[in-house]
Write a structure and sequence with these properties.
The protein is of the alpha+beta class. It has a single domain (about 1-125), classed as Nuclear Transport Factor 2, Chain: A (Roll), CATH 3.10.450. It is built from 3 helices and 6 strands. Strands 2-1-6-5-4-3 form a 6-stranded mixed sheet. The radius of gyration is 14 Å and the shape is globular.
Length: about 130
Amino acid sequence: MMQSFIDKFEITQIIHSYSVHLDIERVDVCTDLFLEDGKLELRIGKAKGKSEIEDLLNRILEFTRGKRHFITNTFVELSNETAYAQSYLLVVDALESTDIKMTGVYHDTFIKTENGWKIHTRKLVLDLNS
């Protein structure tokens, strides 16, 4: 029971770390959260492997600059050495206004490695207003 709590906490920390580091443009830290063969799917494209993920994240910086990414309602399901998480995303403008710029849902899968949990797949599904 305690290990389940620890695993869920670690996964939630990864989810939040991604958003915080994206906001401060630390693409290297975001990329490090993925497995070597991880996958990332965003509105502007898909990437497989850390090199492609890093390139995709660098491409989105022009759109994320000056924004804050808030993650809420995170739900984690564990299954041995794998996990599924779903989180709501709310993006607001942090420089010019406090307008909501985008909302959506992250769908993530994780694999537990000898170095802890890593993202295997991350897919952002935007809401219709985004």
